[in-house]
Write a structure and sequence with these properties.
It is built from eleven helices and 18 strands. The protein is α+β, with helices and mostly antiparallel strands and 416 residues long. Helix 8 crosses helix 9. It is a peripheral membrane protein.
Protein backbone atom coordinates (compact mmCIF):
# COMPACT_ATOMS: atom_id res chain seq x y z
CA UNK A 1 0.00 0.00 0.00
CA UNK A 2 1.13 3.59 -0.62
CA UNK A 3 -0.42 6.93 0.09
CA UNK A 4 0.12 8.59 -3.27
CA UNK A 5 -2.44 9.63 -5.88
CA UNK A 6 -1.25 9.83 -9.49
CA UNK A 7 -3.02 11.91 -12.13
CA UNK A 8 -2.47 12.02 -15.90
CA UNK A 9 -3.61 14.75 -18.29
CA UNK A 10 -3.10 13.62 -21.89
CA UNK A 11 -3.11 16.55 -24.28
CA UNK A 12 -2.42 17.17 -27.95
CA UNK A 13 1.16 18.32 -27.35
CA UNK A 14 2.10 17.05 -23.89
CA UNK A 15 1.30 14.38 -21.32
CA UNK A 16 1.25 15.95 -17.87
CA UNK A 17 1.68 13.78 -14.80
CA UNK A 18 1.48 14.61 -11.09
CA UNK A 19 1.81 12.73 -7.82
CA UNK A 20 0.09 14.03 -4.71
CA UNK A 21 -0.51 12.99 -1.14
CA UNK A 22 -2.35 14.26 1.91
CA UNK A 23 -0.03 15.47 4.68
CA UNK A 24 -0.50 15.33 8.44
CA UNK A 25 -2.52 18.55 8.42
CA UNK A 26 -4.98 17.18 5.89
CA UNK A 27 -3.64 19.40 3.10
CA UNK A 28 -2.75 18.16 -0.38
CA UNK A 29 0.93 18.23 -1.31
CA UNK A 30 2.18 17.80 -4.87
CA UNK A 31 5.39 15.77 -4.53
CA UNK A 32 6.14 15.19 -8.19
CA UNK A 33 5.11 16.77 -11.48
CA UNK A 34 6.34 16.42 -15.05
CA UNK A 35 5.51 17.00 -18.70
CA UNK A 36 6.46 14.87 -21.72
CA UNK A 37 6.04 15.74 -25.38
CA UNK A 38 3.30 13.78 -27.13
CA UNK A 39 2.55 13.62 -30.87
CA UNK A 40 -0.13 10.95 -30.72
CA UNK A 41 -3.19 13.21 -30.40
CA UNK A 42 -4.75 15.65 -32.81
CA UNK A 43 -7.40 18.01 -31.45
CA UNK A 44 -7.91 15.87 -28.31
CA UNK A 45 -8.37 12.66 -30.34
CA UNK A 46 -5.84 9.80 -30.28
CA UNK A 47 -4.50 9.23 -33.80
CA UNK A 48 -1.44 7.16 -32.87
CA UNK A 49 -1.89 4.78 -29.94
CA UNK A 50 1.77 3.64 -29.92
CA UNK A 51 3.15 7.19 -29.83
CA UNK A 52 0.70 8.20 -27.11
CA UNK A 53 1.52 5.07 -25.12
CA UNK A 54 5.25 5.80 -25.28
CA UNK A 55 4.71 9.34 -24.01
CA UNK A 56 2.54 8.05 -21.15
CA UNK A 57 5.15 5.45 -20.22
CA UNK A 58 7.92 8.05 -20.20
CA UNK A 59 5.80 10.40 -18.10
CA UNK A 60 5.12 7.68 -15.53
CA UNK A 61 8.82 6.70 -15.43
CA UNK A 62 9.74 10.32 -14.72
CA UNK A 63 7.27 10.42 -11.83
CA UNK A 64 8.61 7.13 -10.44
CA UNK A 65 12.15 8.56 -10.38
CA UNK A 66 10.96 11.73 -8.66
CA UNK A 67 8.97 10.06 -5.90
CA UNK A 68 10.78 6.69 -5.74
CA UNK A 69 7.67 4.53 -6.02
CA UNK A 70 6.33 2.04 -8.53
CA UNK A 71 3.28 3.42 -10.34
CA UNK A 72 0.77 0.97 -11.76
CA UNK A 73 -2.51 2.82 -11.22
CA UNK A 74 -3.50 6.34 -12.28
CA UNK A 75 -6.49 8.63 -12.46
CA UNK A 76 -6.96 10.19 -15.88
CA UNK A 77 -8.93 13.16 -17.16
CA UNK A 78 -11.45 12.93 -19.99
CA UNK A 79 -11.24 15.89 -22.40
CA UNK A 80 -14.02 18.44 -22.07
CA UNK A 81 -14.30 19.25 -25.75
CA UNK A 82 -15.42 15.78 -26.82
CA UNK A 83 -18.20 15.45 -24.24
CA UNK A 84 -21.89 16.24 -24.55
CA UNK A 85 -24.30 17.23 -21.76
CA UNK A 86 -27.83 15.80 -21.63
CA UNK A 87 -30.24 16.95 -18.92
CA UNK A 88 -32.24 14.20 -17.19
CA UNK A 89 -34.04 13.46 -13.93
CA UNK A 90 -33.84 10.36 -11.73
CA UNK A 91 -36.42 9.21 -9.15
CA UNK A 92 -36.22 6.36 -6.61
CA UNK A 93 -37.99 5.33 -3.42
CA UNK A 94 -35.90 5.45 -0.24
CA UNK A 95 -35.04 1.83 0.58
CA UNK A 96 -34.42 1.75 4.34
CA UNK A 97 -37.20 0.92 6.79
CA UNK A 98 -36.58 4.07 8.81
CA UNK A 99 -36.69 6.12 5.58
CA UNK A 100 -33.26 7.61 6.18
CA UNK A 101 -31.45 8.33 2.91
CA UNK A 102 -28.28 6.27 2.62
CA UNK A 103 -25.40 6.43 0.17
CA UNK A 104 -26.89 3.48 -1.67
CA UNK A 105 -30.06 5.52 -2.33
CA UNK A 106 -27.94 8.31 -3.84
CA UNK A 107 -26.12 5.81 -6.05
CA UNK A 108 -29.44 4.36 -7.20
CA UNK A 109 -30.96 7.74 -8.07
CA UNK A 110 -27.84 8.70 -10.05
CA UNK A 111 -28.06 5.42 -11.96
CA UNK A 112 -31.75 6.14 -12.60
CA UNK A 113 -30.79 9.50 -14.13
CA UNK A 114 -28.53 7.65 -16.58
CA UNK A 115 -31.51 5.84 -18.10
CA UNK A 116 -31.55 7.73 -21.37
CA UNK A 117 -31.32 6.75 -25.01
CA UNK A 118 -27.65 6.50 -25.91
CA UNK A 119 -26.62 6.46 -29.60
CA UNK A 120 -24.71 3.36 -30.68
CA UNK A 121 -21.50 5.33 -31.26
CA UNK A 122 -21.55 7.02 -27.83
CA UNK A 123 -21.34 6.06 -24.18
CA UNK A 124 -22.10 7.64 -20.83
CA UNK A 125 -18.88 8.70 -19.13
CA UNK A 126 -20.39 10.29 -16.03
CA UNK A 127 -23.08 12.36 -14.43
CA UNK A 128 -23.06 15.81 -12.82
CA UNK A 129 -25.86 16.32 -10.24
CA UNK A 130 -27.38 19.79 -10.12
CA UNK A 131 -29.68 19.31 -7.15
CA UNK A 132 -31.41 16.62 -5.11
CA UNK A 133 -35.10 16.73 -4.24
CA UNK A 134 -36.50 14.96 -1.17
CA UNK A 135 -40.30 14.59 -1.04
CA UNK A 136 -40.70 17.70 -3.19
CA UNK A 137 -38.20 19.88 -1.30
CA UNK A 138 -35.53 20.98 -3.80
CA UNK A 139 -32.10 22.68 -3.82
CA UNK A 140 -30.62 19.95 -1.61
CA UNK A 141 -26.88 19.51 -2.07
CA UNK A 142 -26.22 16.46 0.16
CA UNK A 143 -29.25 14.28 0.92
CA UNK A 144 -27.46 11.52 2.85
CA UNK A 145 -28.78 11.35 6.43
CA UNK A 146 -32.02 13.13 5.64
CA UNK A 147 -35.41 11.44 6.01
CA UNK A 148 -37.86 11.05 3.17
CA UNK A 149 -39.97 8.70 1.10
CA UNK A 150 -38.82 9.74 -2.39
CA UNK A 151 -35.44 10.92 -3.66
CA UNK A 152 -35.00 12.75 -6.97
CA UNK A 153 -32.03 14.25 -8.77
CA UNK A 154 -31.73 16.81 -11.55
CA UNK A 155 -28.50 16.11 -13.39
CA UNK A 156 -26.47 16.49 -16.54
CA UNK A 157 -25.56 13.14 -18.06
CA UNK A 158 -22.17 13.34 -19.78
CA UNK A 159 -21.72 11.40 -23.02
CA UNK A 160 -18.78 11.07 -25.40
CA UNK A 161 -17.86 9.25 -28.58
CA UNK A 162 -16.95 5.67 -27.62
CA UNK A 163 -14.10 5.56 -30.14
CA UNK A 164 -12.40 8.62 -28.65
CA UNK A 165 -12.67 7.40 -25.06
CA UNK A 166 -11.69 3.80 -25.83
CA UNK A 167 -8.58 4.79 -27.79
CA UNK A 168 -7.48 6.96 -24.88
CA UNK A 169 -7.97 4.02 -22.52
CA UNK A 170 -6.08 1.69 -24.87
CA UNK A 171 -3.12 4.07 -24.97
CA UNK A 172 -2.88 3.99 -21.18
CA UNK A 173 -3.36 0.23 -21.02
CA UNK A 174 -0.65 -0.37 -23.63
CA UNK A 175 1.74 1.60 -21.43
CA UNK A 176 1.17 -1.04 -18.74
CA UNK A 177 -0.86 1.27 -16.52
CA UNK A 178 -4.25 0.61 -14.96
CA UNK A 179 -6.94 3.30 -14.77
CA UNK A 180 -8.28 3.69 -11.24
CA UNK A 181 -10.80 6.32 -12.27
CA UNK A 182 -11.71 8.94 -14.85
CA UNK A 183 -12.29 12.59 -13.98
CA UNK A 184 -14.16 15.01 -16.20
CA UNK A 185 -11.80 17.79 -17.26
CA UNK A 186 -14.29 20.55 -16.48
CA UNK A 187 -14.65 19.40 -12.89
CA UNK A 188 -10.91 19.06 -12.39
CA UNK A 189 -10.31 22.60 -13.61
CA UNK A 190 -13.22 24.33 -11.89
CA UNK A 191 -12.40 23.02 -8.41
CA UNK A 192 -8.77 24.08 -8.51
CA UNK A 193 -8.98 27.65 -9.88
CA UNK A 194 -12.34 29.01 -8.72
CA UNK A 195 -14.50 29.33 -5.63
CA UNK A 196 -18.04 28.07 -5.15
CA UNK A 197 -19.17 31.70 -5.02
CA UNK A 198 -17.67 32.37 -8.47
CA UNK A 199 -19.40 29.31 -9.89
CA UNK A 200 -22.71 30.45 -8.41
CA UNK A 201 -22.37 33.91 -9.98
CA UNK A 202 -21.51 32.40 -13.37
CA UNK A 203 -18.05 31.81 -14.78
CA UNK A 204 -16.46 30.46 -17.95
CA UNK A 205 -13.29 28.36 -18.02
CA UNK A 206 -11.20 28.69 -21.18
CA UNK A 207 -8.65 25.87 -21.50
CA UNK A 208 -6.35 26.80 -24.38
CA UNK A 209 -4.23 23.90 -25.57
CA UNK A 210 -1.91 23.55 -28.52
CA UNK A 211 -4.62 22.61 -31.03
CA UNK A 212 -8.01 23.18 -29.39
CA UNK A 213 -9.69 25.55 -26.95
CA UNK A 214 -12.20 23.99 -24.56
CA UNK A 215 -14.93 26.16 -23.06
CA UNK A 216 -16.86 25.20 -19.92
CA UNK A 217 -19.51 27.36 -18.29
CA UNK A 218 -20.83 27.20 -14.74
CA UNK A 219 -23.98 29.00 -13.73
CA UNK A 220 -25.61 28.91 -10.29
CA UNK A 221 -22.88 26.48 -9.30
CA UNK A 222 -23.75 23.97 -12.02
CA UNK A 223 -21.96 22.89 -15.17
CA UNK A 224 -24.32 23.98 -17.94
CA UNK A 225 -22.25 24.12 -21.12
CA UNK A 226 -19.17 22.57 -22.65
CA UNK A 227 -17.76 23.14 -26.12
CA UNK A 228 -14.59 23.11 -28.21
CA UNK A 229 -12.98 25.32 -30.85
CA UNK A 230 -10.30 23.97 -33.24
CA UNK A 231 -7.89 26.81 -32.43
CA UNK A 232 -4.98 26.86 -30.03
CA UNK A 233 -1.37 27.79 -29.41
CA UNK A 234 -0.12 26.00 -32.53
CA UNK A 235 -2.05 28.48 -34.66
CA UNK A 236 -0.01 31.30 -33.14
CA UNK A 237 3.22 29.39 -33.77
CA UNK A 238 2.19 28.66 -37.36
CA UNK A 239 1.52 32.37 -37.99
CA UNK A 240 4.99 33.26 -36.68
CA UNK A 241 6.54 30.57 -38.86
CA UNK A 242 4.80 31.82 -42.01
CA UNK A 243 5.28 35.55 -41.42
CA UNK A 244 8.95 35.26 -40.48
CA UNK A 245 9.66 32.39 -42.90
CA UNK A 246 11.28 30.26 -40.22
CA UNK A 247 10.85 26.59 -39.17
CA UNK A 248 7.91 25.78 -36.90
CA UNK A 249 10.17 24.65 -34.06
CA UNK A 250 12.07 27.96 -34.15
CA UNK A 251 8.78 29.87 -34.18
CA UNK A 252 7.69 27.96 -31.05
CA UNK A 253 10.91 28.95 -29.27
CA UNK A 254 10.37 32.61 -30.18
CA UNK A 255 6.76 32.51 -28.98
CA UNK A 256 7.73 31.07 -25.60
CA UNK A 257 10.77 33.30 -25.07
CA UNK A 258 9.55 36.68 -26.32
CA UNK A 259 5.74 36.56 -26.46
CA UNK A 260 4.40 39.52 -24.49
CA UNK A 261 1.02 41.20 -24.94
CA UNK A 262 1.83 44.04 -22.56
CA UNK A 263 4.59 45.62 -24.62
CA UNK A 264 3.66 48.18 -27.27
CA UNK A 265 6.05 49.80 -29.72
CA UNK A 266 9.14 47.91 -28.53
CA UNK A 267 11.69 48.39 -31.31
CA UNK A 268 14.27 46.13 -29.71
CA UNK A 269 16.03 43.96 -32.28
CA UNK A 270 16.21 40.21 -31.76
CA UNK A 271 18.09 37.61 -33.75
CA UNK A 272 16.19 34.68 -35.21
CA UNK A 273 17.36 31.48 -36.86
CA UNK A 274 15.76 31.12 -40.28
CA UNK A 275 17.32 27.69 -40.93
CA UNK A 276 20.37 26.58 -42.91
CA UNK A 277 22.56 28.45 -40.38
CA UNK A 278 21.09 31.74 -41.55
CA UNK A 279 20.44 34.39 -38.88
CA UNK A 280 18.56 37.65 -39.31
CA UNK A 281 17.23 40.42 -37.09
CA UNK A 282 13.61 41.50 -36.57
CA UNK A 283 11.90 44.00 -34.32
CA UNK A 284 10.38 42.49 -31.19
CA UNK A 285 7.33 44.66 -31.79
CA UNK A 286 6.67 42.91 -35.13
CA UNK A 287 6.77 39.49 -33.46
CA UNK A 288 4.29 40.59 -30.79
CA UNK A 289 1.98 42.07 -33.42
CA UNK A 290 1.77 38.63 -35.05
CA UNK A 291 1.02 37.01 -31.69
CA UNK A 292 -1.51 39.68 -30.74
CA UNK A 293 -3.48 39.30 -33.99
CA UNK A 294 -4.02 35.55 -33.53
CA UNK A 295 -4.72 35.89 -29.81
CA UNK A 296 -7.42 38.43 -30.56
CA UNK A 297 -8.97 36.08 -33.14
CA UNK A 298 -9.10 33.18 -30.65
CA UNK A 299 -10.65 35.37 -27.95
CA UNK A 300 -13.26 36.75 -30.34
CA UNK A 301 -14.21 33.20 -31.27
CA UNK A 302 -14.65 32.52 -27.56
CA UNK A 303 -16.92 35.56 -27.25
CA UNK A 304 -18.94 34.42 -30.28
CA UNK A 305 -19.41 30.99 -28.67
CA UNK A 306 -20.67 32.59 -25.49
CA UNK A 307 -23.10 34.80 -27.38
CA UNK A 308 -24.36 32.00 -29.65
CA UNK A 309 -25.28 29.93 -26.60
CA UNK A 310 -26.77 32.92 -24.73
CA UNK A 311 -24.25 32.78 -21.88
CA UNK A 312 -22.31 35.99 -22.49
CA UNK A 313 -24.62 38.02 -20.22
CA UNK A 314 -24.92 35.19 -17.68
CA UNK A 315 -21.29 35.06 -16.58
CA UNK A 316 -19.38 37.53 -14.45
CA UNK A 317 -15.87 36.56 -15.54
CA UNK A 318 -13.56 34.12 -17.27
CA UNK A 319 -10.61 32.00 -16.17
CA UNK A 320 -7.92 31.12 -18.73
CA UNK A 321 -5.89 27.97 -18.11
CA UNK A 322 -3.65 25.63 -20.11
CA UNK A 323 -0.72 26.62 -22.29
CA UNK A 324 -0.94 28.88 -25.31
CA UNK A 325 -2.39 32.27 -24.38
CA UNK A 326 -2.32 31.67 -20.63
CA UNK A 327 1.48 31.93 -20.55
CA UNK A 328 1.73 35.34 -22.25
CA UNK A 329 2.51 38.28 -20.03
CA UNK A 330 -0.39 40.76 -20.03
CA UNK A 331 -2.95 38.27 -21.37
CA UNK A 332 -5.49 38.98 -18.60
CA UNK A 333 -5.73 42.69 -19.42
CA UNK A 334 -5.60 42.02 -23.16
CA UNK A 335 -8.40 39.44 -22.93
CA UNK A 336 -10.49 41.62 -20.61
CA UNK A 337 -10.43 44.48 -23.12
CA UNK A 338 -11.67 42.19 -25.90
CA UNK A 339 -14.23 40.19 -23.97
CA UNK A 340 -15.56 42.99 -21.80
CA UNK A 341 -15.35 40.78 -18.71
CA UNK A 342 -12.98 40.35 -15.82
CA UNK A 343 -10.35 37.77 -16.75
CA UNK A 344 -7.84 35.95 -14.59
CA UNK A 345 -5.22 33.30 -15.23
CA UNK A 346 -5.93 30.09 -13.33
CA UNK A 347 -2.98 28.33 -11.71
CA UNK A 348 -2.88 25.69 -8.95
CA UNK A 349 -1.81 27.10 -5.61
CA UNK A 350 0.76 24.40 -4.93
CA UNK A 351 4.51 24.72 -4.64
CA UNK A 352 6.21 23.43 -7.77
CA UNK A 353 2.96 23.31 -9.73
CA UNK A 354 1.93 26.98 -9.88
CA UNK A 355 1.53 27.16 -13.66
CA UNK A 356 -1.61 27.23 -15.81
CA UNK A 357 -0.35 24.22 -17.77
CA UNK A 358 -0.65 22.04 -14.64
CA UNK A 359 -4.19 23.09 -13.75
CA UNK A 360 -5.94 19.97 -15.05
CA UNK A 361 -3.50 17.36 -13.74
CA UNK A 362 -3.39 18.92 -10.26
CA UNK A 363 -7.16 19.29 -10.41
CA UNK A 364 -7.46 15.51 -10.86
CA UNK A 365 -5.66 14.89 -7.56
CA UNK A 366 -7.69 17.55 -5.78
CA UNK A 367 -10.94 16.06 -7.10
CA UNK A 368 -10.03 12.52 -6.06
CA UNK A 369 -9.02 13.58 -2.55
CA UNK A 370 -12.20 15.58 -2.00
CA UNK A 371 -14.55 13.08 -3.59
CA UNK A 372 -13.17 10.08 -1.74
CA UNK A 373 -12.67 12.15 1.43
CA UNK A 374 -9.12 10.85 1.71
CA UNK A 375 -7.24 11.86 4.85
CA UNK A 376 -3.74 11.19 6.09
CA UNK A 377 -4.77 8.24 8.28
CA UNK A 378 -4.74 5.66 5.49
CA UNK A 379 -3.07 3.06 7.71
CA UNK A 380 -5.99 3.26 10.14
CA UNK A 381 -8.38 2.99 7.22
CA UNK A 382 -6.68 -0.18 5.95
CA UNK A 383 -6.95 -1.80 9.39
CA UNK A 384 -10.61 -0.91 9.53
CA UNK A 385 -11.17 -2.45 6.13
CA UNK A 386 -9.43 -5.66 7.19
CA UNK A 387 -11.70 -5.88 10.24
CA UNK A 388 -14.91 -5.17 8.39
CA UNK A 389 -15.16 -6.11 4.72
CA UNK A 390 -18.54 -4.40 4.47
CA UNK A 391 -16.87 -0.98 4.60
CA UNK A 392 -15.95 -1.46 0.94
CA UNK A 393 -19.48 -0.52 0.00
CA UNK A 394 -19.01 2.88 1.61
CA UNK A 395 -16.09 3.76 -0.63
CA UNK A 396 -17.60 3.15 -4.02
CA UNK A 397 -17.64 6.05 -6.43
CA UNK A 398 -19.46 9.09 -5.15
CA UNK A 399 -20.57 11.78 -7.59
CA UNK A 400 -21.72 15.02 -6.01
CA UNK A 401 -22.22 18.65 -6.93
CA UNK A 402 -18.71 19.89 -6.40
CA UNK A 403 -16.62 16.80 -6.98
CA UNK A 404 -17.04 14.45 -9.88
CA UNK A 405 -15.40 11.09 -10.53
CA UNK A 406 -16.96 9.04 -13.26
CA UNK A 407 -16.59 5.28 -13.71
CA UNK A 408 -14.43 4.89 -10.61
CA UNK A 409 -12.92 1.42 -10.59
CA UNK A 410 -12.31 -0.53 -7.40
CA UNK A 411 -11.05 2.25 -5.19
CA UNK A 412 -9.45 -0.19 -2.81
CA UNK A 413 -6.93 -1.33 -5.38
CA UNK A 414 -5.05 1.71 -4.10
CA UNK A 415 -4.76 0.12 -0.67
CA UNK A 416 -3.90 -3.53 -1.39
Amino acid sequence: MHKYIVGLDIGSSNVYGAVGKVDNTGEIRIVGITAVKCDGLKKSVVVDIDSTSRAIKECVKNLERMVDINISNVYVTLPAGVSELIYNKGIVAVASDDKEIKENDVMRVLEAAKLITVPSDKEIIGIVPHQYIVDGYDHIIEPIGMSGMRLEVDAQVVMAQSTIVNNLRKSISRAGININGEVLQQQAISQIVSTSEERRRGIAFIDIGSQVTDISIYKKGNLCYTGMMPLGGDNITNDISICLKIPFIEAEKLKIKYGDLSKKGDNTKIKINTGYNDVKEIELNYLNQIIEARCEEILRYVMDKLKQNNYNDEISGLVIVGGGLALFNGINIFASNILGKSVKIGSPNYMGAASPVYTTVVGIINDIVNTMKISNNLDDLENEVNNDSNIRNNFKKKENKDNFVSKLKEFFNEFF
